[in-house]
């Protein structure tokens, strides 16, 4: 795939988006920043739009995952991004694009922390099967329920909020390929709140540098260490926190901004047994 353009808003070192005042999500400054970027994109040919987020549960599914404690389940209290809200958001972002009449396929991905990396896999499949351009918009708010689930399962990590957008097209030659070899894997008969070495092994690709999922938790580090071996690593979550559903695409965009060489394997995993990866080419 060829990266036609990309943009992102990453958390600062405290894990919050720098343009967020935390009185509400998506402040006017943030919205204007995203709108301005989208207004500059013109879609051509047969196009697809993919929207990604982390927790895309209905309010009724947002109950506690351990025991019978009475947690808040009203969407306005929990902060859960329900599917209907995601569909509305997707429609809103599409409305900012020139050439939006060329979009004949649109979908939502909610595979938790692997969501936006899964979107890159789907984009590659679409571009290899008749589509000319794909745009992915991923956004993540740190919700009450996400923090609660992490706390219930003793997942100790810093979370962050952010957004990432990427506009992709077909490469006319191998030299133009920016992102290739997108992979996904799903494991059912495993702990849905854990990660496994076998999961990572099924998405790792030979590379010069790896950008691991890299949460820093004991469970994740144990699963990743034997898989990556002595391959040099590029890690972001220690600084910006875990941006959950947007993390895969946001960190790919950060890799695109790095002055690197060779093939970078970017890896994501998500609660529920989801894994995904891609190769970012940085040898040009």
Molecular structure report:
- Helices cover 29% and strands 23% of the residues.
- The chain has two domains: 2-174, Peroxisomal Thiolase, Chain A, domain 1, CATH 3.40.47; 176-281, 3-Layer(aba) Sandwich (Peroxisomal Thiolase, Chain A, domain 1).
- The protein has 284 residues and is an alpha/beta fold.
- The strands form two sheets. It has a five-stranded mixed β-sheet, with helices on both faces.
- The protein is globular.
What order do the helices and strands come in, and which of them pair?
Elements (H helix, E strand, L loop, with lengths): L1 E8 L18 H12 L7 E6 L22 H4 L4 H12 L8 E7 L5 H13 L5 E8 L3 H9 L9 E8 L9 E8 L10 H5 L7 E3 L6 H11 L8 H4 L6 H11 L5 E8 L3 E8 L3
Parallel strand pairs: 2-3, 2-4, 7-8
Antiparallel strand pairs: 1-5, 4-5, 6-9, 8-9
Helix pairs in contact: 4-9
Helix content: 25-40%
- Overall form: globular
Reading side by side through the largest sheet, how are the strands ordered?
1-5-4-2-3
CATH topology of the largest domain: Peroxisomal Thiolase, Chain A, domain 1
In percent, how much strand structure appears in the residues? 15-25%
Series of secondary-structure elements, N-terminal to C-terminal: EHEHHEHEHEEHEHHHEE
Distance between the termini: 15 Å
Main beta sheet, described? 5 strands, mixed
Helix- and strand-based class? alpha/beta
Number of domains: 2
Brief sketch in words of this structure:
This protein is α/β, with parallel strands linked by helices. The chain has 9 helices and 9 strands. It is globular.
């Amino acid at each position: 795939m060829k990266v036609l353009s990309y943009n992102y808003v990453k958390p600062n070192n405290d894990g919050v988006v720098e343009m967020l005042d935390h009185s509400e999500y998506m402040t006017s400054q943030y919205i204007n920043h995203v709108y301005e970027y989208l207004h500059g994109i013109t879609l051509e040919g047969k196009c697809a739009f993919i929207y990604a987020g982390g927790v895309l549960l209905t309010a009724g599914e947002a109950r506690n995952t351990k025991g019978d404690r009475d947690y808040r389940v009203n969407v306005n209290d929990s902060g859960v991004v329900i599917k209907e809200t995601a569909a509305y958001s997707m429609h809103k972002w599409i409305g900012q694009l020139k050439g939006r009449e060329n979009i004949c396929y649109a979908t939502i991905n909610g595979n938790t922390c692997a969501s936006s990396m899964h979107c890159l896999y789907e984009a590659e499949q679409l571009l290899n099967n008749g589509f000319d351009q794909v745009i992915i918009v991923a956004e993540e708010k740190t919700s009450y329920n996400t923090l609660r689930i992490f706390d219930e399962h003793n997942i100790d990590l810093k979370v962050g909020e952010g957004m990432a957008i990427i506009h992709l097209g077909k490469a006319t030659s191998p030299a133009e390929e920016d992102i290739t070899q997108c992979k996904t894997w799903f494991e059912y008969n495993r702990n849905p709140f854990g990660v496994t070495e076998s999961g990572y092994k099924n998405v790792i690709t030979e590379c010069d540098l790896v950008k691991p999922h890299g949460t820093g938790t004991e469970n994740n580090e144990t699963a990743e260490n034997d898989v990556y071996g002595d391959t040099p690593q590029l890690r972001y979550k220690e600084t910006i926190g875990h941006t959950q559903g947007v993390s895969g695409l946001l960190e790919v965009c950060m890799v695109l901004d790095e002055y690197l060489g060779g093939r970078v394997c970017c890896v994501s995993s998500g609660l529920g047994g989801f894994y995904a990866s891609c190769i970012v080419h940085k040898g040009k």
